[in-house]
Amino acid sequence: MVEVLQISQLGNPVLRQIAQPVEHLHSLEMQTLIDRLLATLVQSNGVGIAAPQVAASVQLLIVASRPNPRYPTAPQMEPTVMVNPRLLSHSEEQIKDWEGCLSIPGIRGLVPRYREIEVEYFDRHGNPHRQIFTNFPARIFQHEADHLIGKVFLDRLESVQDLITDQEYLTRILHL
Ligand code: ZN
C-alpha cells in the first residue's frame, strides 16, 4: 500500500519557496514521491496537487480532474503527472471561477485564469509532451504551477470579497 502524505498548510514556508527542477526523475526516491503524490491526491479528493504541498520543493505536479465530493461538477480525465512543466502560451481571455486548495482548507475563491493554455512537461518516464488545456483542467494547471513558484490562489484574487467558505460554496453556488 502506498503511503499517503501529510499536506502542508498555509503558513508552512515550503508553500512560499521556489521549487527546484527535478533532476533524478528515474531515482527510486522520485518515483516513490510520484506514487505517494498520486495516492495523497486521491485520498484527499483533490483535482490537482503539487509536490511543495507535501513538503517536496521540486517541480512536479499532477492535474487530475474528476467529479468528487469537493468538486462534484469537475470533468473526468486521466491523472496527468507533469515533471518540470512550463507554460508555453496562453489565450488573451481570462475567466473567473471557483477554486479551493488542499493547503487552504475551508474556503474557496473566485480566481481569474487563462481560459486556454499550451504547456510542455515530461511524464514520469521522462518522455516530453506538449498539450493544450482549456477551461477547468487549464485552471488546475495554472493553480498547481503557481505552487511551484511559491504562490497560492489567494495571491491571484481580484478582491478579498471573492472569498467564501466551503459550506457556502456547496450550498449557494452548487446548490447541493
Ligand atoms: Zn493548491
Verbal overview:
This protein is of the alpha+beta class and 176 residues long. It has one domain: Peptide deformylase (Peptide Deformylase). It has three helices and eight strands. It has helices at 28-43, 135-147, 166-173; strands spanning 48-50, 60-63, 80-90, 94-99, 107-114, 116-122, 128-134, 163-165. The strands form two sheets. It has a five-stranded antiparallel beta sheet with strand order 1-2-3-6-7. Strand 6 and strand 7 form a beta hairpin. The longest helix is centred in the first third of the chain and has 16 residues, at 28-43. It is globular, with a radius of gyration of 15 Å. The termini are far apart. Zinc ion is lined by residues 101-103, 143, 147.
Ions, cofactors and other ligands present here are: zinc ion
Tally of discrete structural domains = 1
CATH superfamily: Peptide deformylase
Going by CATH, the architecture would be Alpha-Beta Complex
